[in-house]
Each structure stands twice: as structure tokens, then as C-alpha cells.
Amino acid sequence: MARRYSKKASTDVRRAMKKRKAGTLKSGRSGRKVKSRKQAIAIGLSEARAKGKKVPKKATKKRKTSKKKTAKKSKRKAKR
Q: Into how many domains does the chain fold?
């Protein structure tokens, strides 16, 4: 199976993880220190993406329909 990320992308992630460990990694606009391991990985990957390295696209959220909406739809169908 092929690699999902390029080697250069993984070095960007490694650099972000080292910065996090040192306490110098900061997030986006707010500039808050990053404490989360997952957040550090996400920052490293997004930087790699911005540089044009081989990284898969971000996973999109699957929207769940709320219970109220599905209940209304079923009521409408029942009336018809």
C-alpha cells in the first residue's frame, strides 16, 4: 500500500511536535500555546498542506439530521 503522507510532510509534523514539547508551539489567530498532541499533529499537517506536500485532504464532517427534523418529516409523510 502507498504512503498516505510524504516523508517531508512527516518532518513538518515532527517539527511541530518538538515545538509543542518545548512549549513554543502556538495556534492560529489567538496565539495560545498548544498543549494537545492531536492539535500539534493537525498544525504540522496543515503547514505541510500549505507548502504543497503530499498530504490527504481534511476529512469533512458528516452532518447528522436532528431528531426533531426527522420527526417532522415523518409526520408530513403520514398526513399525505
A: 1
More reliable by pLDDT, 33 or 57: 33
Range of the domain at 34: 1-56
The predicted-structure confidence for 9-46, as pLDDT tens digits, reads as follows: 999 999 999 999 999 999 888 999 999 999 999 999 99
In-domain check, residue 50: yes
**Could you tell me how far CA 5 lies from the centroid of its own chain?**
15
Handedness of CA 32, 38, 49, 16 (dihedral sign): positive
Q: Compute the distance between CA of residue 78 and CA of residue 80 in angstroms, rounded to an integer.
A: 6
**What pTM, to 2 d.p., does this model score?**
0.66
What is the predicted pLDDT for the residue at 39?
93
Looking at residue 75, its amino acid is K
Instruction: Cell numbers for 78, please give them.
Output: 403520514
Distance CA 27, CA 34 (A): 6
